[in-house]
């Protein structure tokens, strides 16, 4: 019976995988490098301010640090405190202001709908879940660094600060000893990446953004739910899509919007004349 050499099989599979990746990269480069005569919104950057809106979904959780009291005999019945990871969504507006050719300033007034929880697990096998829902008004102030445009696509990175305020306040104060009480405002650092896609009348941009809270959200008055915690911050990972309008005036050639190739052709024709 013929034996199969595993190294030989791995070598053949490796060559096939490398060939597939080479083909994908080659197709991707050729599609980006080609000169598309129907480039959209070619004078988009001539306007220094643009407006739009955003929608997104996100996943958020608490980041906790236990206090010294958690290891004391008074809490020997508590096995662990575990933060959950829950979803939500956001709606907002986009105000984008041009600083330089590759740098923009973005103001994104946003309303975010959050759910976060902590599960308290006891040594007797019983667990208790503390769910916190909140509607937050956020005001991300971001710098956007973008690449040179290739056809109708450009990539970008962004970073900045994100202050937020709870829209509904702290809730019913009469149950302050029966639930986890947190502060009603926060500030976070936001970082993200995205892709600008230019269409005929608007710019569509999917992006991924990570937000890390800087403020300790625990209040100064501990209760049964917070006494075992020394620090509680937030973290959030969101996927957004933004829609921004094009310039107020568009150059047209007949019934079609002039692309970059058409403009270059007309410039060459004028030079010859």
Question: Can you give a write-up of this model?
Answer:
The N terminus is likely disordered. A hairpin with a 6-residue loop joins strand 7 and strand 8. The longest helix is centred in the N-terminal third of the chain and has 28 residues. The chain starts with 5 loop residues before the first helix and ends with a helix. The chain has 273 residues and is α+β, with helices and mostly antiparallel strands. Strands 1, 2, 3, 4, 5, 6, 7, 8, 9, 10 and 11 form an eleven-stranded antiparallel beta sheet that branches. A two-stranded antiparallel sheet has the order 12-13.
List keywords for this structure.
single chain; 273 residues; alpha+beta; 2 helices; 13 strands; disordered N terminus
Topology:
Elements: H1 6-33, E1 49-66, E2 78-83, E3 85-98, E4 103-107, E5 110-122, E6 127-138, E7 141-146, E8 153-166, E9 185-198, E10 202-213, E11 229-245, E12 252-253, E13 256-257, H2 260-272
Antiparallel strand pairs: 1-3, 1-11, 2-5, 3-4, 3-5, 4-7, 5-6, 6-8, 7-8, 8-9, 9-10, 10-11, 12-13
Summarize the structure.
This protein is an alpha+beta fold.
Q: How far apart, in Å, are the first and last alpha carbons?
A: 80 Å
Report the sheet with the most strands, covering strand number, pairing sense and barrel closure.
11 strands, antiparallel
Beta-strand content: over 45%
**What would you report as the Rg, rounded to the nearest angstrom?**
27 Å
Query: What is the average of the pLDDT values?
Result: 81
The total strand number stands at 13
Supply the helix-strand structural class: alpha+beta
Percentage of residues assigned to helices:
10-25%
Q: Give the uncertain stretches in residue-range form.
A: 1-13, 20-35, 170-174, 250-260
Helix/strand order, N-terminal first = HEEEEEEEEEEEEEH
Count, helices = 2
Shape: elongated
């Amino acid at each position: 019976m013929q034996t199969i050499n595993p190294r030989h099989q791995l070598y053949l599979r490796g060559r096939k995988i490398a060939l597939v990746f080479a083909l994908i990269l080659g197709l991707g480069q050729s599609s980006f490098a080609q000169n598309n005569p129907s480039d959209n919104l070619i004078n988009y950057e001539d306007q220094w301010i643009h407006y739009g809106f955003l929608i997104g979904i996100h996943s958020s959780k608490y980041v906790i640090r236990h206090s010294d009291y958690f290891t004391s005999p008074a809490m020997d019945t508590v096995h662990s405190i575990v933060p959950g990871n829950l979803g939500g969504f956001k709606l907002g507006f986009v105000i984008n202001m041009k600083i330089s050719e590759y740098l923009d300033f973005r103001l994104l007034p946003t309303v975010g709908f959050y759910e976060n929880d902590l599960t308290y697990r006891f040594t007797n096998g019983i667990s208790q879940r503390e769910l916190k829902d909140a509607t937050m008004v956020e005001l991300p102030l971001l710098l956007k660094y973008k690449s040179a445009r290739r056809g109708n696509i450009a990539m970008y990175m962004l970073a900045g600060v994100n202050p937020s305020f709870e829209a509904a306040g702290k809730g019913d104060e009469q149950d302050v000893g029966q639930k986890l009480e947190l502060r009603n405002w926060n500030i976070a650092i936001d970082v993200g990446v995205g892709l600008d896609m230019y269409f005929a009348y608007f710019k569509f941009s999917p992006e991924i953004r990570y937000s890390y809270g800087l403020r300790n959200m625990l209040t100064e008055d501990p209760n049964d739910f917070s006494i075992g915690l020394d620090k509680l911050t937030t973290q959030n990972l969101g996927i957004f899509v933004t829609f921004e309008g094009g310039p107020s005036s568009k150059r047209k050639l007949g019934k079609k919007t002039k692309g970059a190739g058409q403009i270059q052709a007309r410039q060459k024709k004028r030079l010859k004349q």
